[in-house]
Amino acid sequence: MTALVDRAATSWLSRTGGGEAVRQRELAILRRLVLFSSAALVAAPIGLSAVTSPAVALPAGVAMVCAAFLFSAVGSIALARQGSSAGIATQSAEDFFLAATPGLVFFLDPHGSVATVGGRDRRDFLAWMRDPKGRGFLEQVHVSDRILFLQALDDLRRGEDAQSVDLRIDRPSVSRDQRQFAYLRMDMTARRDADGELAAIIAQLRDVSVEQQLRDEAQNRAADAESANDAKSRFLAAVSHELRTPLNAILGFSDILIGEYFGKFENDRQREYVGLVRESGAHLLSVVNTMLDMSKIEAGRYELILEAFDISSSVKSCESMLALQAKTKGLTLTSRIQRGLGEVVADQRAIQQILINLVGNAIKFTEAGGVVSVDAAARDGILKLTVSDTGIGIPADKLALLGQPFVQIQNDYTRQFEGSGLGLSLVKGLVALHGGYFAIASQPGEGTIITIEIAMDGSGAQHAEDAGHGATVEFPPRLKGAVNTGAELEEGRFDGRAQAKIA
């Protein structure tokens, strides 16, 4: 009888799905129900015969027992499967999380002791890490990083939902890559009970040693670059100082020879050669002075001496200094100064240097018969200096290169002229120290306009100093305004040769 029941139940259960273990549990339930039903097949008809005739009691009792057996079997198996599925699903989800999560996974108690260890990379971590269970993990954290771990735990206990901390873990032995520590990032998530109290902590650890190595290398390279930059600035300053002393002697003795204070030249060739020596020495001294100023600006040691002075006098002085050079080249040098312009508060030497460099460049790159103009005007407390020329102009794709030290726009025309490529770079640095605005507009074959704007009361220089707080000025300074090409200029800003020719 039992074998017959087992074969029938097994055949039916195999068609309902489930594993072998499930079928064995359900088969045990059916066995118990069959046992109870067998006893009921006898008891039910006897009990019914007491109230009705045996002809009615026998089929009615059998039908009742069969119905009760079927309902009990289906209900018991359904309830068993439902409870089993819920338990298996819960257990499977946690097991899957522990097995599939990248890195190393810890279940910690509220005190930080490790209760469970898992994670997809568990084997790789535990290959070099000591047993982390209990307080074992905290003991492997670098001493100086333990406070970070404990602070993160305290934040979770105070109500934070998650915390992340970078830790160094001591390696029992130095690894093949010569690393004494493993850098791990620990992401911690709080699990709370019904009252909101911290019940457990789920922590995921990932190895970020490669990221840390890249950060260290980047910091080292930045430090090396800064050190090299400082060394370059000190070298330029030292060389500049060492060159200026003999250059001043060369210029002084050349002036004495040109003045023929100790005898006349025997022929004009001697006078010409002495003049070339004097001219070359003056040019070299100018380059040395520019390099010295550049190194000071780049190192943040260029000190502005702010004072009130007549800007029109500076413009006229620049015009007088370069008038002979412009006349020799066949150019017209003119200036236009707004009436009643008054005084400006700035570093007079720096402003004079700015004007000389800009006008000198304009003369250098303007052909014979051209015009160079210097304009000075003020509006709303802003001094606007404009140097325009009818020279060769600059292509739009070359404008971004202007102002970089030792860089010139290289083409067949500009190579005919001397120059170190430092003038415009120095101008930009001096304008930046004044907190000013620098913009350039140019069209090839038409000319170039350079505009400088600074505050007349010197407030721009003070703001630049306050913003820097002793930091070095960005060098070469970037244009504060967009670089305009000829097609993008404001109306009236550029009209070809007409701008410079108006006297």
How does this model look, in words?
The protein is of the alpha+beta class and 503 residues long. Helix content is 51%, strand content 18%. The chain has 13 helices and 13 strands. A six-stranded mixed β-sheet has the order 7-9-10-12-11-13. A five-stranded antiparallel β-sheet has the order 2-1-5-4-3, sandwiched between helices. Helix 1 crosses helix 2 (20-49). The longest helix has 50 residues, at 209-258. The radius of gyration is 46 Å and the shape is elongated. Residues 85-90, 411-415 and 469-503 have low confidence and may be disordered.
Task: For the structure shown, list the relevant keywords.
5-stranded antiparallel sheet; disordered C terminus; alpha+beta; 13 helices; 18% strand; 6-stranded mixed sheet; single chain; 503 residues
The residue fraction in helices comes out at 40-55%
- The secondary structure category is alpha+beta
Sheet with most strands: 6 strands, mixed
Oligomerization state:
single chain
Output the strand order for the largest sheet.
7-9-10-12-11-13
H/E order of the elements?
HHHEEHHHEEEHHEHEEHEEHEEHEH
Determine the strand fraction and express it as a percent band: 15-25%
Overall spatial form:
elongated
Structural Rg: 46 Å
* Average pLDDT score: 78
Distance between the termini: 127 Å
* Distinct helical segment count: 13
Are there runs of 5+ residues with pLDDT below 50, and where? 85-90, 411-415, 469-503
How many strand units? 13
